[in-house]
Amino acid sequence: MCIRDRARGGSLVAVDARREGGWRDNSASWLGNVLLRGWRRLGSRTRLEGGLAAYGAGWDSPGFLSVADYNAHRLTRAADRTDGGSGGRVVLQGTLLHPLANGTQLDLQGWAQGVRSTVFLSIAEDGVVAQQEERDRRAAVGFAGSWRAPAGAGDLALGLDGRADWDDYQLYGTVRRDRVETRQLNDGGFRQGGAYARWRGFVFGRLQYDLGLRADLLHVRVRDQAIPGDPFHSRTQGAVSPKVGARLLLGG
Question: What φ, ψ does residue 82 adopt, rounded to 5°?
């Protein structure tokens, strides 16, 4: 890990790597993490923050033990030496903090994410052990913005946020990682946008109130790629969520 901190900016770099052999046959694995963070002051009040987080892993799977192997104390045997998989994730994020006049503050945030995984695993189904391949590819982007200001004996916050997701999922029947059967091919997406208002404050010195209202619009779509020409099937719905809270402070 390396940390750098200055009056107008700073950064952090962290790396983690591991390799394990496992106690069963075909059970080795590795993983790695990388974290990059940084911040910088723009002008006299604005602060910009950002970061990148990345993760990767690969493994060999020994699979399940049969009852016969267990009873015979053959505990280290691998079910299929081609079982295993790999996965990874990358997240990029940035935040802008900007204080305004009279205690008001504006916060803006954006992020993006990419995930992928491939797993080969032998499982028992109806008494027959067979290998399958599961592939998942996902991507998402999102944003959030809020404005906060003093209001009477408390504060008022107004905000907007949203996200968009894409997913591609595939499932195959395999023999030693060779595909012999297509079981599931799905392509889908998710969209969400929301707005909220929140008012918090005190009355009588010790009683805190918390009032809020949030509205969301959600959109989901999916299609079966195994069916030629299958269109996206979608659904859109809205939701309104009120919030009322109170807290009595007994201490100072």
Answer: -95, -5
